[in-house]
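Weekly sync, protein design subgroup
Attendees: M.S., D.O., the rotation student, P.L. (late)

Item 1: inverse folding check
M.S. brought a backbone from last month's batch and wanted to see whether the design step gives back something sensible before we order anything. D.O. pointed out we never logged the input encoding, so this time it goes straight into the notes. Structure tokens as presented (210 positions):
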């Protein structure tokens, strides 16, 4: 069942059972709208808290840009060096399959294209307390609202890339970039919502790959 980080194989089946336990299996699946229900209220609360601070009007665009920038970097780092990292041995391969390998083996599985709350909520809390430690509170709330909005864009657009047919425009190009990661070379194209860090770090696909 485990998938190797060196070779991902697209399976003709849409899904696979991951756990013998029905309880654990249920937590491995999530409808694509769930992150919206969970995190849009969080974004709204953070914007409300930001309005209670002394953040000046001209500072908002700078904080928003910083939040977007840090999200794109976070997305790249998590995808490349966490989701694609495989510990040695049978258990390492199994853990890798559960975290991300299953998505490469079954990329059309509609219930495993966004992060389940059992993972996204602890990650969001961890990042919030990290930012709270690093960032003055006057900037924290708007920064975190933008960071979480970046995550939502990533999660929902990831679902769309696998199940929507874009005829033209920016999303078609982003989808092509992600499909090359799945079906041509999983060691390139780690940016999902943006190829920015692939361009900066050098993991972008060349023109001949397209």
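Designed sequence read out in the meeting:
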């Amino acid at each position: 069942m485990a998938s190797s980080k060196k070779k991902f194989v697209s399976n003709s089946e849409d899904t696979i059972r991951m756990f013998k336990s029905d309880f654990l299996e249920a937590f491995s699946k999530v409808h694509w709208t769930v992150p919206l229900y969970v995190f849009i209220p969080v974004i709204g609360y953070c914007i409300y808290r930001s309005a209670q601070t002394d953040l000046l009007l001209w500072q908002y665009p700078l904080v928003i840009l910083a939040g977007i920038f840090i999200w794109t970097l976070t997305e790249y780092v998590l995808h490349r060096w966490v989701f694609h990292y495989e510990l040695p041995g049978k258990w390492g391969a199994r853990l890798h399959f559960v975290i991300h390998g299953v998505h490469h083996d079954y990329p059309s599985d509609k219930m495993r294209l966004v992060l389940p709350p059992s993972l996204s909520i602890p990650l969001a809390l961890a990042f919030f307390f990290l930012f709270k430690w690093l960032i003055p509170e006057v900037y924290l709330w708007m920064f975190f609202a933008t960071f979480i909005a970046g995550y939502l864009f990533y999660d929902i657009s990831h679902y769309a890339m696998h199940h929507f047919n874009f005829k033209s425009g920016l999303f078609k190009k982003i989808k092509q970039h992600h499909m090359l990661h799945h079906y041509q070379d999983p060691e390139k194209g780690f940016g999902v919502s943006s190829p920015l860090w692939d361009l900066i770090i050098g993991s972008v696909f060349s023109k001949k790959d397209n």
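Discussion: Residues 31-165 form one domain. The radius of gyration is 18 Å.
Action: P.L. to compare against the previous round before Friday.
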